[in-house]
Design a protein that fits this description.
Blueprint lengths: L1 H19 L4 H20 L14 H9 L2 H31 L4 H9 L1 H18 L2 H24 L5 H27 L6 H26 L4 H27 L4 H6 L1
Helix pairs in contact: 1-5, 4-5, 4-8, 4-9, 4-10, 6-7, 6-8, 7-8, 7-10
Length: about 260
């Protein structure tokens, strides 16, 4: 949840610091935050895995073991592309609202917060849906919502129009789908590796942030500053997420996941 919250709240905090002090205040804040996080990790974080449960071996071997799972790679593709869509929306929506719709910076900052409740609702209902509908039905629901949200953003652009309601409304639907997918897909990715959960989690988190940054960079180089281009790329990312879920489902239901078979 922090991965979603922090980029959305950052513009509000950055705008406040800039107005109250100056533009350098954000960088001093990041410096102090980094020092605080490092101190907390150094002084308070300890290894929680019992020594007898730790797996010996080079970290590269553990990484290859986790990445050798088709099921894990499918979930990884899903999570990376969905998170890239969230990051792209955060990066491009403000530009569209500012340059195309000529909204004020304060209004843009407020609109950035609107998708947060949708994500919270999706994340809160994810486990309940998994209990009532089933695990894969829950994943399918999250995927469908992500595609619907991207479609809502794209539709006005196809007609040559710009719609604030479609942009924010589509973003809310997409974020709701992401909220459902993140906990469910993360659980599905890590659960086959009880002795390598830390490695699997590191790959998920690191790859999500790295590739989301790459997608945002490429999109900025391509000049994604319209509702049509934003929605189209989010549709592509949502489709890739669906393909990733299909890969994981096929690997688990057909028993052709080499890494899982080896582990068992």
């Amino acid at each position: 949840m922090g991965l979603i919250f922090s980029p959305l709240l950052a513009p509000l905090l950055g705008g406040f610091l800039t107005e109250a002090l100056n533009w350098r205040a954000s960088y001093f804040f990041l410096l102090l935050l980094g020092i605080a996080v490092y101190a907390i990790m150094t002084l308070r974080f300890t290894e929680t895995l019992p020594r007898e449960s730790r797996q010996p071996g080079h970290f590269g071997t553990r990484y290859r073991h986790v990445m050798g799972s088709r099921r894990f790679r499918g979930y990884l593709l899903c999570l990376v592309t969905v998170f890239a869509g969230v990051s792209l929306f955060e990066a491009a929506a403000g530009v569209i609202m500012s340059d195309t719709m000529a909204l004020s910076p304060r209004m843009i900052s407020l609109l950035f917060v609107v998708p947060l409740p949708a994500y919270l609702v999706g994340a809160g209902l994810s486990s309940r849906f998994a209990d009532s509908l089933g695990y894969y039905a829950t994943l399918a629901l999250g995927s469908v919502l992500a595609l619907m949200g991207a479609g809502l953003i794209t539709l006005p652009g196809l007609m040559g129009e710009v719609s604030l309601y479609a942009l924010i409304g589509g973003g809310c639907v997409y974020f709701a789908g992401a909220g459902i997918l993140f906990p469910a897909a993360s659980t599905g990715a890590i659960s086959p590796f009880p002795h390598h959960a830390g490695t699997a989690g590191a790959i998920l988190g690191g790859t999500q942030n790295l590739l989301a940054g790459v997608v945002t960079l490429v999109a900025s180089q391509l000049g994604v500053a319209s509702q049509l281009s934003l929605g189209a790329i989010m549709l592509i990312l949502g489709t890739l997420a669906t393909i990733g879920l299909f890969i994981s489902y096929h690997a688990e239901t057909h028993g052709d996941d080499h890494a899982s078979l080896t582990a068992h």
